[in-house]
Amino acid sequence: MTRCLRRFHQSCYLLSAVALANAATARTPRIAILDAALVCIACNGLAGASHRVIAEQAGVTLSLTTYFFSSRDDILLQAFDHFAERTLQGTQSWLSEIGDYLLTLPRLREHNPEWRNQIADMLAERISEFITRESPEKAFGNAIEVTYMFAYQQPVELRQRVKEYRAQLVAIVANYMIQFGMQNVEVNASLLLGTVHRWEYECLNTVIRPSRLQVRDEIAQLLRLMLKD
Prior knowledge:
Blueprint: H1 3-11, H2 17-25, H3 29-44, H4 51-58, H5 62-68, H6 72-103, H7 113-134, H8 139-150, H9 156-180, H10 185-202, H11 212-227
């Protein structure tokens, strides 16, 4: 396994130590190829993930990649499913952490405007702290996620699969917003998630990385507008 691939296992998935150990011992050639495909996507985008490049990254023959995967589109689709399966739980975990905090507060209708702004600021503090703390540790995972979500001219089936993945994340956020008593939850959840993804993407820039205050202030302003409903 290459150094890049080892780093991928360590930083992309937010897995437990036990899960990482299981992943290392249970890797089949097919899984090794999928992992290599995700490394190539993180480093070079979808356009840089060819059968030949993936085979070289995985340390297998080109014929083995074509044995398991009928086409480049097939690799990209199955690599996304592989990624989504292993990352969704980690993403749900941090969203649930924010949501559980939200549910410790009285429902929205019981707050006056000043207290709503304080709630927005407290939530923004937690979300921004997560983004700026976790982004360097899961840079590969963020790179893969934003590539799949925003890549140009994806195959139709892959585009649909990505939409379904994002819809699951939106539904988690929307559910907490409903319980808190917010309005327009689907739109607001989508806006909040989109903002989080954008800041995660910006945190991939190791030269000019945004500060936590920048992230916090923008998210706080967005939440203040949402909490006015």
